[in-house]
Amino acid sequence: LKPKKKHNPQREKKFPEMAASGEGASLPSPAGGEDSRRRRVSYFYEPTIGDYYYGQGHPMKPHRIRMAHSLVIHYGLHRLLELSRPFPASEADISRFHSDEYVSFLASATGNPTILDPRAVKRFNVGEDCPVFDGLFPFCQASAGGSIGAAVKLNRGDADITVNWAGGLHHAKKGEASGFCYVNDIVLAILELLKFHRVLFFLLLFSVRGYSYF
Known about the structure:
The chain is α/β, with parallel strands linked by helices. The protein is 31% helix and 7% strand.
């Protein structure tokens, strides 16, 4: 029998979401044979993501990401995962797909619509569906940073499965916002994965159509 890990109540009190577990940061594979090893799962979460607010009546509600994270914690699923806080994606990271002009606009946009250039508002398609709200660019950086970080983990072989609930904003186009999405973290993650994988299959499970990105 393997010796049990020592229980450390002080560690759990200080870092309740990182409490030690006999299972570790992995999940069992449903398959048998050679594929029966435990899957290493890396879960990216930005604690401030639920603070961002698209506006009254808008169907996109980032606080739902915080609610999902709360369920992960309260059901104890975090004990089977490696929990990571994503680094914010830089303007250079985001510009790997999006145009420099569009990224500069996002980085300088504020929640005060009266100081926005009307021509830029029209050009970059921000408005009712894609409002400019307080903290817009940090929100985009957190979303994209989680997906890029997830791809890096896979490329390095540090994880078998990665999760970023703040990602999946697949409607954003190269030079404009669209469908509640500003930065296309999926494309950025794919570009990162393609550094090491010549062939990549991407499956989008969603109730509406995606767009052609390239």
